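Researcher: Please generate the 3D structure of the following complex. Treat every line as part of one assembly.
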Amino acid sequence: MEDWAPYVETLGKSARRAAGELVALDDAVRSRVLRIMAAGLRAGREDLLAANAKDVAAAKSTHLDAALVERLKLTEKRVAAMADGVEKIAAQVDPVGQVIEGYNRPNGLRIQKVRVPIGVVLFFYESRPNVTSDAAALCLKSGNAIILRGGKEALHSNRAIVSIISDALKQSQIDPAAVQLVESTDRALVPHLLRLDKYIDLVIPRGGESLIRAVVRDSTIPVLKHFTGNCHIYIDEATTHMQEEVRKVCVNAKTSYPGGAVCNAVEHLLFHKDAATDLLAKVCGDLAAKGVEVRGDERTRALYPPAKPTTDADWDTEYLSFVVGVKVVDSLDEAVAHINEHGSHHTDAILTENIRAADGFVKRVDSASVMVNASTRLADGGEYGLGAEIGISTDKLHARGPMGAADLTTYKWVVTGNGHMR
Amino acid sequence: MEDWAPYVETLGKSARRAAGELVALDDAVRSRVLRIMAAGLRAGREDLLAANAKDVAAAKSTHLDAALVERLKLTEKRVAAMADGVEKIAAQVDPVGQVIEGYNRPNGLRIQKVRVPIGVVLFFYESRPNVTSDAAALCLKSGNAIILRGGKEALHSNRAIVSIISDALKQSQIDPAAVQLVESTDRALVPHLLRLDKYIDLVIPRGGESLIRAVVRDSTIPVLKHFTGNCHIYIDEATTHMQEEVRKVCVNAKTSYPGGAVCNAVEHLLFHKDAATDLLAKVCGDLAAKGVEVRGDERTRALYPPAKPTTDADWDTEYLSFVVGVKVVDSLDEAVAHINEHGSHHTDAILTENIRAADGFVKRVDSASVMVNASTRLADGGEYGLGAEIGISTDKLHARGPMGAADLTTYKWVVTGNGHMR
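Model: Done. Output below.
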């Protein structure tokens, strides 16, 4: 077994040193690096696609789930979208140095809360190469160094992307340790990383429950958890005049991302019993027509016999594929209680014409995003106007829901006096 | 050895249930509880002082440090100040429901970030009874339930205070589990508490390094660390025309709290070599005249021979008493590097007439509060206009520096569409 301690120590130490350099850079410099990086992605797309092809071939040979292979795969179009994404982040307003609040106290003491970079971010994420460029760009934009630990299936792709970023940093005379990829996918290395609280300020784990639980258990660094989403749509009784809308939104929420392998896809539909009679079979039929496997409780199967029976485990399951669980409930209360108990506090929506039902749902569902008459797929940094996101936090502290560049900052109290005492 | 698991499970579960009730209350109700609580503190002061006298007697019999006994002690005046503090918190603007940001997207999707309570807070703190009432009041104001684990020396005082709070809650028909005191000071109970991530949303440990490290190690709940402060004042070379101010601010920062036993007291003074020649002996003399033990490096002792010699350990020490460590540095750079290496990222100040020195210090010192020409003692929720504080976070995430009621909230994205899809 390899001794990872020295490698990991070097990673952390060099990231900390780079962060000390980034904090002193103006936005003009930080944004220029991103534009060079975007140009690099475009110019290097052949190499990038070749590296990605290796990953995809290996993934297929190990019979990785089709939806996950789809997520891993790069195309000319996807590389162009990555480059565009980086340029959009470059063009955003600089969050660093923003005065969040500023006021004078009665004694004349001047108080300002000023945004500053967090420092060094350690990021665990799934095998989606576009996340590598987004995350690096968001961290550089906000003046942070980042250590990337992507899914093992994407290692060749990630190496190619980080090599392009390193070139952009070097070209700008910035320490390339600002963006580092953990070079090995050996799991034994992870606990060492998670004890580097001396060098790393924040860990963001994105992905499966078991990974995130392990990170929380082992980390002495603060963690912002990004669980994938067990998202719900509750179809309220007051939907008589919006049946078309309900059908379209449910289909969109389940199927608009290829394979349904995305955290904001809906996993479970809860129908109010009075909405179910008319609508449940139609919605389930629409979904089945799109290739979705419908599972349902007894009352669902009475209304839509093709549904497979659910087990208790279904309600806690994030399928991340073309499967949906359907349940009939007696009331809004039952829907809210079900969501708060079984959901992952990510994104949950109500479809209703009734303002009291909407308000009650919004107030009582304890999730990062609560939606009224909209598809859960809209829970996204881009859709919320953040430009891009490093992920969707299911934690309650610091940042909740889609996290953009500003969420990768903290603040400092700057207090200016004139010999003030207490 | 007692099995604490069942007791702790009950604590957590009942706090979670109470939090579910608090989230639905309007501010009128939450603030009324606080006013009843303030009245209860005033009316119950005899019992409270009697309970406190037991704690103080026990502390003296175990030869607790005089500064810590001072901190533990209640007087009529201090009880009145506690009640006033609670009323001030009641009168604050309600943070819950505030729309932090709200805007429409180009497609008409309505986005709002709305403040909501965090849920259940677990709070570890030192033996200062006034912290019990402040923390409970801040949590109730912001719609959170709190589990209090105070220092063992204050157990009788804390029981008396929490009994007054319970009465106020019951009188308002609110579940008294909204504010609970951990009834035992057995340390074996703590790891059980720290694994209750099912019920508790946030742990705030205030106090000594070893307590906080243990909490971070054992907790599966997010932690906001409140280290006590190793605060510095750097006396820049550009202080020729502000010598009186320098002398007063340094004395204030060290001695204005009885016994110096407070996190925002200054622990170390760094003199620029050119400021030292004239000022160091005067400042040290002023401090010694107030009963402060002055320790210094060699260059300090050359200028002020009564200083005791420092060892390397001094620079990392938070004395929390009438002791100060003094060092002569060659430059602002050296001062900044020293503070970032040895400080606790709590509060650090520069005294200077030079705007570039002030700006450089503010930008490069990585602390929650950075001050220019002001006493470190001003780092305080009250002084910053937060009304009161649950403590001073030395962490970088969520809240940094003094934390008031608004810092005990998170937010929810409320997204309203009209059949919006992606």
